[in-house]
Design a protein that fits this description.
Layout lengths: L4 H29 L6 H19 L2 H13 L5 H18 L3 H23 L7 H18 L5 H9 L5 H23 L16 H15 L6 E5 L5 E5 L2 E6 L6 H19 L16 H15 L3 H14 L9 H7 L17 H16 L8 H13 L25 H20 L3 H6 L4 H10 L9 H9 L6 H15 L2
Parallel strand pairs: 1-3
Antiparallel strand pairs: 2-3
Helix pairs in contact: 1-2, 1-3, 3-4, 5-6, 6-7, 8-14, 8-20, 9-10, 9-12, 10-11, 11-16, 12-13, 14-15, 16-20
Zinc ion (ZN) binds next to helix 10 and helix 11.
């Protein structure tokens, strides 16, 4: 490890600002799990103060001076330190290039946007949201221009969530996905096959569901002395430190899917957080690289493992043992089919693994056209409904089921949706590579041995933090740029036998 004096200074600045954000993270976990209702206003103020302080501690002249000194030292530094300098520079430029006036205007527009969106959605009235949305798009255009005037605005917004991702790359990925997924959805819906989901929809006490889901997450290697599981309305994962990772879950008495797949999903995020390098806590190398890579970890465990036949070979007997009598008539094939129902629907968060990506494609193309000025805000509901009809064969009855269903745009989170699909693509690409490196992977899963896969992910992905940008990481792990072929192969291999053979 280097002892460059400027690095010592940089590190202490980063640690100060990290201490504040880490306290905020814990407060926001508390808000979602423990806090009494009337604490909300006071908590919001404390968190705004802490965020302001963390920002202030970071955007000091000393940070710039330390960065410049280290940039001059360049390749004399070891590569972990070079990566920390590169990533801190990226964060610093983003935090300082946008003037205070614009930051304030955005914060205000986001809070008004969420308020307008909630009311508009309740009334299914898009026109009530249109002015707030127009304002948010204008401000985000200005923000993108301030950060980087040389590329198209959506590229800057994408890059906020997934470094170095661009509209051009996504155009290619989504075109390839649509070309294969749309016909696949059509043949599934016209096959006449109806998947029986009743094996997973049986009355079962929530404690029993949680206990079973926790046997799965401990088999995955989620360590309970470095994490906790609590209840919340919307499941999430917050990493305070690799030694303190908080997951939440939510159950439904007559359906095992939300508890089981929801907790496997969050535990996938949690394993990533537990696997980040201790030594670099507080620096960019101590944090996850991008939303897309994070999502690849959760979806790999939830969908590619949790909904696989191999998984149920190992875990159906355990489920039967944990709930005597409830699953006696269920076999491995029936429960695997039940976990893989495909049904085109209007609502993204309820979508299956296949059609989910078409929901995302629609949102990406709309964002692209809005930011290129090719689609007017007023024309948005019509464009949305037409896209749903064309890609999924369903048409919303009203704006609440259509263009107003997601919170993201009301918060100014443009360029965020694609990271969900990138997560699916990366996950399939990683899993193909894991199979090549661990030839008996499916056998291991059938025996309930999930640790070798966690070790593989930890070694190749988790322990690097932000050392490599996401595209480079994918290339290092799999030998190829991110592409859609492994995901398409994976879906076809799983779904064709259920629906079309
Ligand atoms: Zn997730």
């Amino acid at each position: 490890m280097t002892t460059h004096p400027a690095f010592t200074r940089l590190r202490s600045i980063l640690l100060e600002s990290h201490a504040l954000s880490s306290a905020s993270a814990l407060l926001s976990w508390d808000q979602e799990t423990m806090m009494p209702e009337r604490g909300i206003d006071a908590r919001a103020q404390v968190m705004a103060q802490l965020a302001g302080l963390a920002h202030e501690r970071f955007v000091r002249a000393e940070t710039a001076a330390a960065l410049e000194a280290l940039e001059r030292a360049g390749s004399d530094l070891d590569d972990d330190v070079q990566a920390i300098v590169r990533e801190t520079r990226r964060d610093y430029d983003r935090a300082t290039k946008v003037d205070k006036e614009l930051v304030t205007a955005l914060a205000e527009a986001q809070s008004l946007g969420q308020d307008a969106w909630q009311r508009a959605r309740a009334a299914a009235d898009f026109r009530a949201f249109a002015p707030a949305l127009t304002r948010l798009i204008d401000l985000k255009q200005a923000y993108a221009h301030a950060v980087n005037p040389d590329v198209e605005a959506l590229d800057v917004l994408l890059d906020d969530h997934e470094a170095e991702m661009s509209t051009a790359v996504l155009d290619t990925l989504f075109a390839a996905l649509k070309a294969r997924l749309v016909p696949l959805v059509e043949s599934i819906t016209s096959s006449g096959v109806v998947v029986d989901t009743s094996p997973l929809r049986r009355p079962l006490a929530l404690e029993t569901q949680l206990a079973f889901a926790r046997t799965v997450t401990s088999a995955m290697g989620f360590s309970s002395d470095a994490g906790r599981v609590d209840g919340s309305a919307h499941p999430f994962c917050i990493g305070i430190h690799p030694g303190d990772v908080r997951l939440t879950w939510r159950g439904q008495v007559d359906d095992l899917r939300p508890a089981l797949f929801g907790l496997m999903h969050e535990a996938g995020h949690g394993l990533y957080e537990q696997g980040l390098p201790d030594a670099w806590v507080g620096t960019p190398l101590g944090s996850a690289v991008s939303l897309g890579i994070h999502e690849s970890q959760s979806r790999l465990w939830e969908n590619m493992i949790g909904r696989s036949r191999s998984f149920w070979v190992a875990f159906l007997p355990r489920l039967q043992a944990s709930a005597p009598g409830v699953y006696d008539d269920v076999d491995v094939d029936a429960i695997t089919r039940a976990a893989n129902e495909v049904r085109p629907s209007l609502i993204r968060v309820e979508a299956d693994e296949l059609t989910y990506n078409l929901h995302v494609a629609i949102r990406f193309e709309i964002e692209r056209d809005l930011f290129r000025g090719r689609l007017a805000v007023d024309a948005l509901p019509q464009a949305w409904d037409d896209a749903y009809e064309a890609l999924l064969g369903v048409r919303p009855q009203d704006a609440a089921q259509g263009v107003l269903q997601d919170v993201h745009w009301s918060m100014g989170a443009f360029g965020y949706f694609p990271t969900y699909t990138l997560g699916n693509l990366y996950a399939a690409q990683f899993l193909e590579q894991a199979r090549a490196d661990l030839p008996d992977l499916d056998g291991m899963v059938e025996r309930g041995e999930l640790l070798p896969l966690r070790e593989w992910l930890r070694e190749r992905i988790h322990r690097h933090g932000r050392k490599y940008p996401p595209r480079e990481l994918v290339k290092r792990v799999t030998g190829r740029e991110p592409h859609s072929e492994p995901f398409l192969r994976y879906l076809e291999a799983k779904l064709l036998p259920i629906y079309l053979r």
